[in-house]
User: Which sequence fits this backbone?
């Protein structure tokens, strides 16, 4: 019997144990590698998140500083620039400069005397009419090396250009008197402090100082209801009030005819080179005072400029002799117009400003408007709240008068 030799391979037991240990080592190394990748990624995410938080903190701080700076700039414009005639450079930073501040250059003119038209930006002007602007470039500190600069536009408009022909302000803060007007058509806008049933006139549109819907509305010429044309905020005067604390300078009693806190913006100041009427007998360029309390102004006079009427007597010059008797207080004012409704010659005459400023002594009781008028002029009346009512009357029925009437602190 033949036998074949077969090769035999015998593997030692310790060799099989080495293969098992090597596999475990490879698996462990793979786990370590995966764990290292995961830990590295987690560290990278934490680092990125920390950087984002730091960046958000810086961005938030800059945003807060910028908003603080905007608030400072707006308050500065409202309290310092608007009621002024000029100002020097001004800088202010909060306790930590990183939280905001402003740098304001000097300005050399009164905002409400500006005749610069808006150019290069939004021309919208509330209330219609063309507007003017005084631009101020203010640097807003936001904590960066190159802080932004904002142009603040103090925009103003003339009531004459905006169609506000009748403006009636409250006589006093505590006991305002209503304005009684009989059967008058106002071919333009009207402003009344508090509408009441005693008002009997028809404006094209009107606004009030009320923050809520007034209980009284006017009617159009066709008899339909005419609602007020207030904007989101009630009309506000730029001139500060006299004698009030700083917190209430821009609310309440209107004070624009003769305001000591903003003299350059007052009507008295804008009545340049006026004819002064203090009760003494005069006759000058269309203005006549008889010395007995009666004043007559003829609008047809070419030489007529501005007129400033006061209520007191002239102050006598120092002299050892007895002082001259005081002139009688002015009680009546007559403004003479033209016979024609549309007088071409009067239309071509320069505009004039007539200011009645009787705060010290309110003696004027009657203003008479005779015939018609085509000359452009403004009549501004201011008295104290203790005086008698002022009567404004037309001598001609269905008369047409081209004028702007500003009634301040006066019971009409």
Assistant:
């Amino acid at each position: 019997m033949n036998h074949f030799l077969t090769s035999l391979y015998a593997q030692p037991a310790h060799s099989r144990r080495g293969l098992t240990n090597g596999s475990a080592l490879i698996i462990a190394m793979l786990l370590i590698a995966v764990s290292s990748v995961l830990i590295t990624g987690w560290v990278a995410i934490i680092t990125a998140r920390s950087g984002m938080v730091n960046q958000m903190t810086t961005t938030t701080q800059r945003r807060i500083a910028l908003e603080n700076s905007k608030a400072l700039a707006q308050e500065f414009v409202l309290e310092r620039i608007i009621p002024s005639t000029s100002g020097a450079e001004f800088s202010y930073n909060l306790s930590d400069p990183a939280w905001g501040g402003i740098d304001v250059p000097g300005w050399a003119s009164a905002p409400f005397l500006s005749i610069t038209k808006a150019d290069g930006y939004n021309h919208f002007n509330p209330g219609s009419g063309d507007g003017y602007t005084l631009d101020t470039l203010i640097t807003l500190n936001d904590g960066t090396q190159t802080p932004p600069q904002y142009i603040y536009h103090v925009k103003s408009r003339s009531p004459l250009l905006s169609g506000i022909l009748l403006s009636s302000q409250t006589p006093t803060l505590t006991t305002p008197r209503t304005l009684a007007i009989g059967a008058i058509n106002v071919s333009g806008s009207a402003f009344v402090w508090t509408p009441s049933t005693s008002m009997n006139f028809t404006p094209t549109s009107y606004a009030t100082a009320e923050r809520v819907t007034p209980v009284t509305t006017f009617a159009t010429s066709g008899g339909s209801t005419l609602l007020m044309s207030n904007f989101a905020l009630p009309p506000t005067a730029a001139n500060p009030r006299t004698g009030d604390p700083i917190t209430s300078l821009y609310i309440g009693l209107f004070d624009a005819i003769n305001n000591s806190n903003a003299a350059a913006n007052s009507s008295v100041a804008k009545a340049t080179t006026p004819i002064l009427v203090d009760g003494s007998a005069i006759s000058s360029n269309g203005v006549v005072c008889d010395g007995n309390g009666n004043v007559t102004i003829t609008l047809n006079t070419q030489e007529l400029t501005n007129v400033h009427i006061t209520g007191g007597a002239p102050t006598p010059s120092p002299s050892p002799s007895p002082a001259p008797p005081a002139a009688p207080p002015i009680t009546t004012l007559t403004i003479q117009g033209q016979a024609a409704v549309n007088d071409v010659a009067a239309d071509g005459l320069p505009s004039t400003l007539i200011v009645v400023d009787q705060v010290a002594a309110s003696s004027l009781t009657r203003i008479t408007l005779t015939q018609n008028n085509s000359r452009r002029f403004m009549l501004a009346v201011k008295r104290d709240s203790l005086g008698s009512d002022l009567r404004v009357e037309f001598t001609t029925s269905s008369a047409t008068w081209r004028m702007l009437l500003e009634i301040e602190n006066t019971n009409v």
Residues 23 and 389 are 112 Å apart (CA to CA). The radius of gyration is 39 Å. Confidence is low (pLDDT under 50) at residues 5-11, 238-252, 312-321.
